[in-house]
Amino acid sequence: MSNRSSGGNNRPEWLQQYDLIGKIGEGTYGLVFLAKIKSNRTKSIAIKKFKQSKDGDGVSPTAIREIMLLREINHENVVKLVNVHINHIDMSLYLAFDYAEHDLYEIIRHHRDKVNQAINQYTVKSILWQLLNGLNYLHSNWIMHRDLKPSNILVMGDGEEQGVVKIADFGLARIYQAPLKPLSDNGVVVTIWYRAPELLLGGKHYTSAVDMWAVGCIFAELLTLKPLFQGQEVKATPNPFQLDQLDKIFKVLGHPTVDKWPTLANLPHWQSDQQHIQGHKYDSPGLYSVVHLSPKNPAYDLLSKMLEYDPRKRITAAQALDHEYFRMEPLPGRNALVPPQPGEKIVNYPTRPVDTNTDFEGTASLQPAPQASGNQVAGGMGGPHVMGNRNIPRPMHMAGVQRMQQQNMAAYNLASQAGMGGTMNNPGNIPMQRGVAAQPHQQQQQQQQNQLRRKDGMGMPGYPQQKSRRF
Amino acid sequence: MATNFWTSTHLKELLEQEEVDVVHNLDKQRGITLDDFKLIKLQMTNYIARLAQNVKVRQRVVATAVTYMRRVYTKRSMTEYDPRLLAPSCLYLAAKSEESTVQARLLVFYIKKIYPDERYRCEIKEILEMEMKILEALNYYLVVFHPYRSLPQLLQDAGMSDAIQLTWGIVNDTYRMDLILIHPPYLIGLACIYVASVLNEKDNTAWFEDLRVDMNVVKNIAMEILDFYDKQRTISDERVNAAMHKLGLRK
Questions:
Q1: Does A319 touch chain B if contact means CB atoms closer than 8 Å?
Q2: Would you call A322 a catalytic residue per the annotation?
Q3: The domain B5-144+237-247 is classified under which CATH number: 3.40.50.300, 3.30.750.200, 3.30.1490.190, 1.10.472.10?
Q4: Which of A176, A386, B35, B208 has the smallest CB count inside 10 Å?
């Protein structure tokens, strides 16, 4: 069944369907490449290469988690895994995703450092709504993301899905219905600025509410362009107590009390009164002044409900989608980057930096690539964004990699077309996106749709329509 | 969906009995019959369970590992994927996907300890290579559902809470067959409750009728389980050894 390429051919078949553009990222897990599909030059793919873990323990659990979850899920606001490839020679694993040009980290930075202007309300609201929509889908399927932060929230660039938000990076995500081990066994998760107070205080059996806290932090950051709680991380193992992060939170939200948060008393670091955390006194809270919102503003109301100390009282993704904020003008839309009001200023976000020095085999030429080639392939990418040749990845050999079988890929693409099934898994009964097949004419009609969107309730399945909302 | 069975790859990938009972040509050439094929899978199920006891992982990990092993053999031959290497490798992968990671060297250590037979020996590197081959053969579908989770609730509802251990044991035994590849886990669970009712001589007809499930399917699964128990008495070590012998030596 497997059509393993013969030894003489050092470009395996699966690789031949792509044209490499360059390297776009690097993490502890491995490298990320940008490539185009030869048969469809308009389609870009991000290929994430997982290195074999150093301790000789096979495919990294991170990769297993990511594959396992992404293979089961299918939602417009979750990044789409289009293919998995294995190279048996160097035992590396490749995940191919639909490529998203932007992420919130870059968008926020662009506004802060380049445009010097707040992100417009329509964009903030649309991003937040889509983020919550994706998260609601994950949570109603018992998946916690656990590592939400601006750089993991992608936004699609030009094309039929322009301005659509995609939740990415499921390396820490997991199913939380029936864990065999306490959730804290995986080590502390969530980048500390976005980490929920129950985690900072040593909570072990945390819930999907940790993702909502992170969304609250991201919402505030979209509004102010600054991370809301920018604590200094204590780097030590294992799981050090992050006093500074808690201090930053308490300064803005006030001192937590057992009165308002009954289970606080059971949290290990609070109970043991680490570094006299209980005794710190903080002035009256001032979240509204930090985010420059009136306490009466629905945006402020929603934000404060996301930043509720007690995880059991914290607003859920389903409840948040139903919040008044999303029923007010401007209404959220599918293309978060292009406001529906004609004449409104459209911000052109820079495209992602691509290191064109790296070739698909992972070998890098030592000479800097001419910038022109970067511009050509990445579509008008600015010269200064081209990454330096900082790191030369070790060579990898791609011969002998098997290709995904055609029939299996077809089956995979049908994933979840059957719909959501048991409605009991959709607690808020929020209308949900059922696959992306509903937008075939997107590209051609982009402009009309932009103009029509406000009149016809955006015409997008799953988007809040004022008429059909239940109050 | 990770834990929504109704939209899962598990449901979509369920097979018909006839699709599962196919001996691959390469294996046929070695004289392996359908009975041998089933016996070897049964033997490997026991192997996985025994190894799991030693490395101390829970029943759900065993169940997932056995499911992986049985799924792989619907796609690949035993000649190419030696069961004595595939079985521990499936346990290795299942431990990861069930968030109970076990080190490969620990598996290698226990394999040596519990199986003096040289043919079971394997190296860490072989397990790691096989892990990737399994991923591929499974088409990267790793989420597996099992009947265990709903069992206590169902039994309580049926007024059979005292039969939890018996029923649990029957569910464990279903992994010695290919039921998990063919039927949705909740139906397998109900069939096990049905078998437990029969064994306990408890009349649960009314309770079963109240469930909106196809009782014919449940009864058919129950019959298969009872058949299996009957046949199992006749399985001798000689027959298992003869079947394993046809596979020949590794490498």
A1: no
A2: no
A3: 1.10.472.10
A4: B35
